[in-house]
Design goal:
Elements (H helix, E strand, L loop, with lengths): L2 E4 L13 E4 L3 E8 L14 H18 L7 E9 L6 H15 L7 E6 L9 E9 L1
Parallel strand pairs: 4-5
Antiparallel strand pairs: 1-2, 3-6, 4-6
Helix pairs in contact: 1-2
Length: about 140
């Protein structure tokens, strides 16, 4: 495996999350602009943050596979959330949990969640950028 995920001792422990990713591969894969669209460009789960997060994961897995990578190769995820409020956290985490169970994802790399006013078009609640390193 090219990525080791670490939670430092004496550091806050967060469910579904690691603070550090150490990568030893030689090829970087950058995936950006992943939103809750299906293969026809139709918005999946309008108004449903949980459903949109899960669809973004599905799209990321497809994008990684196209580059010869898997979620085990991911070293960082950056999320952008439209109109973010702390009250949205549980729905966001529910989407992560749904996707990880559905897709068999066990790696939980470092991630950032950035609240923004709007995303690409109305109705898109989240967008993800992902960086992976493969051998």
């Amino acid at each position: 495996m090219t990525v080791s995920l670490i939670n430092p001792d004496d550091h806050v422990q967060v469910p579904l999350y690691h603070h550090v990713a150490v990568a030893t591969g030689s090829r970087q894969v950058h995936v950006a602009g992943q939103v809750s669209w299906d293969e026809n460009g139709e918005l999946v789960a309008p108004g449903d943050l949980t459903g949109q997060v899960a669809q973004v994961y599905r799209n990321v897995v497809k994008a990684l596979a196209a580059a010869g990578a898997t979620f085990d190769d991911v070293v960082r995820v950056t999320w952008y959330a439209a109109g973010w409020k702390r009250e949205m956290y549980d729905a966001f985490v529910a989407g992560v949990e749904q996707a990880t169970e559905e897709l068999g994802i066990t790696a939980t790399p470092p991630a950032a969640l950035i609240g923004v006013e709007v995303l690409f078009e109305p109705g898109i609640l989240v967008e993800a950028e992902v960086t992976a390193v493969v051998a």
